[in-house]
Write a structure and sequence with these properties.
Order of helices and strands: HHEHHEHEHEHHEEH
Strand content: 5-15%
CATH topology: Undecaprenyl pyrophosphate synthetase
CATH architecture: 3-Layer(aba) Sandwich
CATH class: Alpha Beta
Radius of gyration: 19 Å
Number of strands: 6
Strand order of the largest sheet: 3-4-2-1-5-6
Number of domains: 1
Shape: globular
Distance between the termini: 14 Å
Number of helices: 9
Largest sheet: 6 strands, parallel
CATH superfamily: Decaprenyl diphosphate synthase-like
Helix content: 40-55%
Structural class: alpha/beta
């Protein structure tokens, strides 16, 4: 998207327009990862059941996906459901799975229209059959898209991913001398994708929650007190602008934020 196109999308005089005018399209993060947190607290503040927070969070997902695609982010990964989330009450888990199916059904045409490629990372085989069906349909129908890659981390755990990659290496008969960081990275769910440049966490929590542990080794982290259901395009733009002001050192000398695209 050009700068002029972005200004057309952002309402005149809005916070989004003001932020968009500061955006440097030559210094965008290639991969943005988001830990979506705060649905339960959002509901509690309104004296509503927790599941209402999850329902409200769908609007935030839609806004962030559309905004990321508009401004030219290559990869967006949202942390939707962890392997630990199965410990939640069965009713809450059921609602989460139902919301996921509903999102895919309602948004599939929008993903296709915007050339977005949908992909799931995590243990799909452990999900309910009806959920797997919707995921398979979404991934199959968008597989030919060449725009932004939209990953949903579902039944995902960073440690579990690393263990599975190690098992895959053993099963493939790789000798220790044959295994380096590049080869190991190719065994992860995100094989072939760039590592996240920017990790966003909502609700003010200062932890990574077992998310993309290998991949976020050098990611810039941006935390906001905003609860996920209230997160919108302006918050994403604020995160990217903050990212663009940082110097990325990678454990050594200062490196510019400019990345090859």
């Amino acid at each position: 998207m050009s700068f002029e196109d972005l200004l057309t999308w952002a309402p005149a005089g809005s916070r989004e327009e003001a932020l968009a005018r500061q955006l440097n399209f030559e210094r965008l993060p290639v991969h943005v990862a988001v830990i979506m947190d705060g649905n339960g607290r959002w509901a509690a503040q309104r004296h509503l059941p927790r599941v209402e927070g999850h329902r409200a969070g769908i609007d935030a997902v839609r806004d962030v996906v559309e905004t990321s695609a508009r401004i030219g982010i290559d990869v967006l990964t949202l942390y939707a459901f962890s392997v630990e989330n199965w410990k939640r009450p069965p009713t809450e888990v059921s609602v989460l799975m139902g919301l996921l199916k509903r999102y895919l059904r309602l948004e599939l045409e929008n993903l296709l229209a915007n050339d977005i490629k949908f992909q799931v990372i995590g243990r799909q085989d452990e999900l309910p059959a009806d959920v797997r069906h919707e995921l398979d349909v979404g991934q199959a129908r968008t597989s030919g898209n060449r725009g932004m890659r939209f990953n949903i981390a579902l039944n995902y755990g960073g440690r579990a991913e690393i263990v599975e990659a190690a098992r895959s290496a053993i099963e493939a008969g790789l000798r220790p001398s044959e295994l380096d960081e590049q080869r190991f990275g190719d065994l992860l769910y995100t094989a072939g994708q760039p590592d996240p440049d920017l990790l966003i966490r909502t609700s003010g929590e200062m932890r990574v929650s077992n998310f993309l542990l290998w991949q976020i080794a050098y990611a810039e982290i941006w935390v906001t007190e905003t609860l996920w259901p209230d997160f919108r395009a302006r918050h994403l733009l604020e995160a990217i602008l903050d990212y663009q002001k940082r110097d990325r050192r990678y454990g050594g000398i200062t490196q510019p934020v400019v990345v090859g695209r």
